[in-house]
Write the structure tokens for this entry.
Amino acid sequence: MCGIAGIVCQDRDDRIPISLPRMISMLHHRGPDARRMHVEPAAGLAHARLSVIDLRGGDQPLANDDRTLWITFNGEIFNYVELREYLERGGHRFRTQSDTEVLLRLYEERGRRALADLNGDWAFAIWNSRSRTLLLSRDRMGVRPLYYTIVGRTLLFASEIKALFADPRVSREIDPESVDDIFTVWSPLAPRTIFGSVRELPPGHSLTWHEGHVTVSRDWRPGFVRKSHEQLPDRDAEEQLRAHLTHATRIRLRADVPVGAYLSGGLDSSIVAALAAGERGRAGNGAPPLQTFSLGFDAAEFDERSYQRHVVAALGTEHHELQCTPADIVRVFPQVVWHAEAPLLRTAPAPLYLLAQFVRERGHKVVLTGEGADEVFGGYNIFKEAKLRRMWSERGRASRRAALVKRLYPHLPHLQRQSAALLQSFFHAAPDDLAHPCFSHLPRWSLTSRLKMFFSDDLRASVDGRDAVAEVVARLPADFASWDQLGRAQHLEITQLLPGYLLSSQGDRMAMAHGVETRFPYLDPDVVAFGTSLPDRLLMRGMREKVLLRRVGRTLTPPSVWKRTKQPYRAPGADAFFNTVGPAKAGHDGDDADYVNDLLSPSQIRRDGLFNPDAVSHLVRKFREGKAIGVKDDMALVGILSTQLVIHHFINHFGTDTHGALYTGSEALHRR
Amino acid sequence: MEPYTQDLRHFIVDNFLFGDQSGRFAFSDTDSLQELGIVDSTGVLELVCHLQERYGIAVADEELVPDNLDSVDQIARFIERKRRDAKLVRAS
């Protein structure tokens, strides 16, 4: 796990030896163990290394035997052991023990067809110095990030956007369409990023650069082939899923450093921890216990520690708990946005930033997580809500449906008070909505779109007539309308929120801020293929979620966990930004964090130009008076504050100081 | 009802439209605030808190229905009825 960067150009580019070291130095947090470059005329690759596999021999960029192919690679190929055996049978002789060399030799032998053989999380670049062709590739689900930009006849790429900005030629202007995307579907629609000049290589895609020409092509897309497992008996399905998950976990324990596990207290991460602990057990008596890591919150509504402790007791792991307070969230939020490189609508990434730091301080570099299970095995409330809304549009007893809504959202106290008639008015579906291909997601997107009332007149004018939802629809697979309802909703989650937000802003970026690599057994290609071929009855039965996965959990986790209804991961919200810094105060007269006041002040909002200063002042006042109780206000405040932080970090305070060294907005905040 | 509607309009603009007077979110006293997307499920409770604070009205869960709370006029009528009922209770 590492950071990568590179520059290739059509003509001789004198800046490569200057820009490339700067670019890779911006990624030091991703790879603190070593930093190397390969520079040749008009091309350069760089690598910041986090040593996980082949600690001594795995340095990069790495060349093939005749030094015509060079690779810089971020990620892990978990089936590299099997691929190496295959290559050795074919006569390849290896110089290192690394998965990087396996990847390079496999590419040398099979070209881009090699991508289909990989089981792993990757973002890599391979430079063919003979044909002067660059290949960029990114894993299927979008675990590892990869960005690029084109300046004249030069292409620059890097694991994070900040590295591209280390080259002063790269424009750092905000893309209004991306802001519009984020304030609709939570993230820019790839390949857009928040910055107009920077493109993301979308998950499951490759980019080829040759003589200044760029071609981007899709290598993979999730398929939903329910029919193939329609007749599969439940017991056989359970055995198959367990076998897939066991294998996925086993190969994700491959590392030359210890691999720990995150534990949320829910079904998904508990199953992964149980499987990992089981693999430890197989390794023999001498193996140290699995190390597990979890978050705890003071507020009972977010806290899951009692469940975590049941799992720890059942599995005998060596457990580490981090207590996270609202003040902690406020304190690290500027760094969180610096690493996420995108506006955020929730504070939820902040505790995960702190957890990764906690893991690293305890000497761990690699953790397994339960991310992906809800998408692949039907766990999210949005799936149930869609079912309810569809039911509600038909005839039936409103009181029973109201009870279901209340059961679905036990963590939203305001819903608990409301009458069936009122809930019906919020949860019923209009006929047009029922026919919409994205029916399941319309309430979320429509709620988020309401935040655009805070846009400035200029921003509104620049996205006038634009419809982000229509753009999502235009990108759907051609036969999407024939898919079942749950499959459609899963596809939207897997292709939109998962890579755009969960795996990036809340995943890779928070962990790699501290040089911690996250691994996701539920996103193993075989697990995903199996999950997306399961019939509805094994995913969601009535209002019971993750039916089949729960059956697997029954044999691996305590009853308190596998019988549990899903509790969404949530963190203390935007009211944390007001009066939480300094001594705890009960009233609303405490000190807000300085940066919050500065960045949300009417003068700063006006200067930065994206939001309406009067509306923002009203919102801030509502928070100060303790009257902001809803999700929408919360998302608005976090969304505006994080956007202001993006502008602060990457536009207003990004540059070189008088000594020629780069400094960043993140540092500027602390210098004050 | 007039004083109530003025106050309610002010509360709605201030609290749900964050002071926006541009006319982009124009609403009449009979428009459904839910259909216009001005009041959502949380907004109903913000409105109820306002009625309790400003007019001393206690709102029971069974009164949280669209007939009472969906438009400015309906809310104003609801306030009137509740205050009249409260007076009657006190008088008796």
Observations:
- Residues 581-590 of chain A have pLDDT under 50 and may be disordered.
- The longest strand of chain A covers residues 69-77.
- Chain A has four domains: 2-218, 226-377+495-562, 381-471, 574-671.
- The radius of gyration of chain A is 25 Å.
